[in-house]
Structure formats: C-alpha cells, structure tokens
Inverse folding.
C-alpha cells in the first residue's frame, strides 16, 4: 500500500468518526432541555466543529509536504508561546529575551528541523537558549525577581517551541526500508494523543466520579483517564500497519503517548491554576487556546520521538 | 490593501481582540479615549473597530512620530485616517485642538489618548484637558472609555520591535455628562472610567 493510500484511508477514517460525532452532536442539541445540558452540548458542538477545521488544516499541510508541515508546527509553537507569555507576567527588562525567543530561537529551531541538523536541534533551546536568555535579561540591569523571570521564559520556550518541535521532527527520522514515512509517525502521535484527550473527555462526562487531582484539574477523573487511555491504546495498536511497530509495540508506544499526554495536561493545568485562569486563550472555539489542545502533545512528542529514534532508526 | 496587511500583521503579532463591554459598535459620533502605552495603540484600536467604523474614525497621532518619514506619514494619513497633532506647540491654550475640532465639526469620530504621552503603568496617568474642552464644545458626541490591555508589555517604550503578546481592546459604557462639572473632576472621572476596564491578571 502506498503512502497516499494509507493517508487517504486514515483521513477518510477520521472524517467518518467526525461525521458520526457531528450527527450525535446534532441529535443531542435537539433533545437537550436543561440549561446546563444546553451549555454542555453547545460546547461539544463547538469542539466538533473546531476538530473539523483542525483536521482539514493537518490534511492540507500533510498533502503539501514537509516544508508546509514544518511551517504549520512553527506557527503552532508561535501561537502557544504567545499564549504562554501573554498570561505570564513580564517586565520591560524581559523585552530583549522575548525578542530573542520569538524572532531568533523559534525560527532557528524549525530551520534546524527543516535542514535535519539533529545535533544542534536537540540542544539549541535547552543549552544555548538557557545561556542566552538570562544573559540578555541581565544586560538590562533589572535584578528584581530575576530567577523567576528567566525561568518563566525558558519554561515557556521549552514547552511550546522545543517540545512541540519534536512532532514535525519525526519527519526527519530515517527508518530503514520505510522512506518518507515520517508523516505516518506524526499522524500516529497526533491521533493517539488527541484521541486520548477526546475519549478522556467522553468517558469523564459519561462515567466520571473519582477526581484524579481535584485541586489541579477538576475535570480529570480516574474513569475518564482509564477509559480514554485504554481506548487510545487500542486505537494506537489498531494503527500498527502505518508504523514500523508490531501491534504490541504500537500499543506500548501508544501507552507512552497517553501517559505523557496525561502528565502534560495535568502539569499545564497546574500552571494555569497558578495563574488563575481556566484556558490559555480563546483562539479555538470550544477548546480554549491553542495550548489547551497542544498540552498533551507537547509532553508526548519528545518521548515518542526519542523512543522511535533509538529503537527504530 | 495596506490596511488589510497592517490589520493582518497586528492580529498575527498581538491579536488585538475587541471586547465591547459597555457599548456596541455603532456609527454614531464618538470620542474613544484610551490609555496610551505604545506606538501599537493606534493600530490596535483601529484593528479592533469594525470596517464601517474605521472609515469614519480618526485616531490622533503624534506628528513627531507618525509624521516622520514618508512611509509612516502615508500610513498615518492615508491608511489609518489619522489626524496628526504637534505635541510641543507653544500656542495659546487649546490651539492644538484645532484639527480635532475640525473632525468633530464634520460629524466624524475621534480616538484620543488624553495622557498625551506613552506611560508604562497598567493604569492611565493624569489626563490632559483636551478631552474636557472637546466634550464641552461637542456635547452630543458620545464619550467611550477604552482600555488597551498589554501593549506596554508587547511594545514597551524605548524598544524597537514589538513582541507577540496578546493585547485586548475594551470599550466601556459611555461616560455620562454631569451639569456644571469642573474640569479636574471630569478628567479624573474619565481617567477612572478607563482604569475600571483594566482587568488585573493574577500576579
């Protein structure tokens, strides 16, 4: 089966799933009567609509090739970093480090992926960004809350640029006997991570009783986590045929993605809570900000990238 | 064409979302008065206004910045519909307001930054008296307090490049006139109306 055939089947399958979800959403919107239920169904339908748009964007960028996909993820990093910094207090003296983060480190990181310069890509932000940003901040001569300020910028950059950039970096992996199949790995990662989020939401809404971490994230429940996680692992195992993994290995990979995704969602909920907000932004109707959709992926991407790189290339 | 490009760039970099809190977008004659933190402010309000309002709204821009250089001047006058005012005029009191009176007399709307210069604080500083005089001369014009959230972080004074931090433009309820109100009391009330629209992000 050719790459195009596989991608057609995959996007066809996702469109079918979203079609079913849209029908369910429509039926629910006709049936619901209570005020509370109406709000939930309205949010659900906004989410489904946004999913259609996101899937369309991904399908188009996959179709247009690696360059466009890299640019798409660079934009994702840009918007998530913007959301992160917008909610994080900064001062005048942070301006120069922020200029460096947005206009130098972010494009450079994605340029390194584009040119497949792994050795520098892996250390640019954690090492050179780590050295550059505090230096620029210190040059301004403002020592107030210095450690806190540089940590925030460094953390935002790690999370939104470094971690997320590992997703398109899958396109650079050279798996023996499988040329140009990085797209399928990327598809696998995104599908498992997002399917896990969706199913955790669904299971949580239907059966959620026991909260995992009520203080950090009131919407996360054990029932949602187990049900959603298991469905995503099953979905991952079912997608083994697009990957270099056996079905069992695909399930294990999916489990790693689900576990990291859960931890990412939880950690970022803690960050949001510490800032006193519920969502990172308002850009994706029904979902909140871009980072609300990318939180699980940002934790899962580097782990999945390295597991695949070490064991399959 | 340039206008769409500028709006696109503003949205891309700083968002510039409009929140109509106490007023709705309307073509009636208005003076929007806002806090002033950066050179982005004019662009922000302009991007936040719906297209039909942009055509009849004239931001006040400092001639010493927006009038300098051919491109900037073109953008200010032809694209942003701006009225350039000299900040350093030494004429009789109120003479700097002449171009603003012209706009209001033509029945069109204004965007004013009554602090006169860019501040770096979240809350606006003391207002200059222009807003008071104009409100006296044109009592039928609606006065809309406007708060710009974050431009002082996205593009602080003394820097050359804005960074992408989301900025919001909030339009509040029209400032009601009070009969016989003194100038200073009015200006303080107007300043408070702008400050009241500031949301405090949790530190």
């Amino acid at each position: 089966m050719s790459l195009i055939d596989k991608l057609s089947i995959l996007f066809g399958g996702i469109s079918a799933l979203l079609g079913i979800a849209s029908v369910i959403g429509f039926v629910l919107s006709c049936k619901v009567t209570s005020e509370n239920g109406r709000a939930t169904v309205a949010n659900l339908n906004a989410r489904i609509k946004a999913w259609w748009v996101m899937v369309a964007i991904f399908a188009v960028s996959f179709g247009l090739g690696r360059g466009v996909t890299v640019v798409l993820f660079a934009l994702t990093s840009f918007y998530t970093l913007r959301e992160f910094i917008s909610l994080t207090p900064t001062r005048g003296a942070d301006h120069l480090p922020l200029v460096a983060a947005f206009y130098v480190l972010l494009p450079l990181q994605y340029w390194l992926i584009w040119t497949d310069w792994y050795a520098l890509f892996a250390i640019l932000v954690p090492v050179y960004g780590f050295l550059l940003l505090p230096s620029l901040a210190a040059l301004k001569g403002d020592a107030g809350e210095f450690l806190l300020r540089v940590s925030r910028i460094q953390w935002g950059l790690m999370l939104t640029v470094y971690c997320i950039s590992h997703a398109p970096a899958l396109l650079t992996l050279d798996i023996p006997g499988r040329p140009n199949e990085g797209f399928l790995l990327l598809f696998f990662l995104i599908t498992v991570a997002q399917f896990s989020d969706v199913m955790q939401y669904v299971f949580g809404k239907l059966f959620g009783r026991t909260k995992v971490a009520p203080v950090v994230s009131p919407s996360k429940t054990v029932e949602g986590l187990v049900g959603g996680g298991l469905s995503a692992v099953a979905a991952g195992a079912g997608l083994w045929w697009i990957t270099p993994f056996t079905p069992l290995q695909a399930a294990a990979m999916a489990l790693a993605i689900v576990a990291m995704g859960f931890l990412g969602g939880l950690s970022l909920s803690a960050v949001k809570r510490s800032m006193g907000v519920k969502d990172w932004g308002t850009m994706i109707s029904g979902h909140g900000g871009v980072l609300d959709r990318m939180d699980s992926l940002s934790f899962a991407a580097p782990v999945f990238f390295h597991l695949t790189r070490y064991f399959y290339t | 064409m340039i206008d769409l490009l500028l709006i696109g760039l503003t949205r891309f970099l700083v968002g510039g979302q409009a929140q109509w809190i106490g007023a709705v977008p309307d073509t009636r004659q208005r003076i929007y008065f806002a806090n002033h933190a950066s050179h982005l402010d004019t662009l922000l309000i302009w991007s936040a206004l719906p297209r039909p309002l942009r055509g009849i709204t004239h931001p006040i821009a400092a001639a010493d910045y927006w009038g300098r250089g051919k491109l900037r001047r073109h953008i200010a006058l032809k694209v942003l519909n701006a009225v350039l005012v000299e900040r350093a005029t030494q004429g009789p009191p109120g003479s700097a307001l002449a171009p603003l009176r012209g706009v209001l007399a033509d029945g069109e709307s204004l965007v004013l930054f009554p602090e006169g210069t860019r501040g770096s604080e979240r809350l606006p500083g003391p207002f200059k008296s222009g807003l008071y005089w104009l409100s006296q001369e044109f009592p039928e014009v609606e006065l809309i307090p406007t708060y710009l959230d974050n431009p002082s972080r996205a593009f602080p004074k003394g820097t050359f490049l804005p960074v992408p931090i989301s900025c919001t433009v909030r339009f509040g309820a029209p400032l009601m006139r009070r009969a016989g109100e003194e100038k200073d009391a009015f200006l303080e009330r107007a300043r408070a109306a702008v400050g009241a629209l500031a949301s405090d992000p949790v530190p």
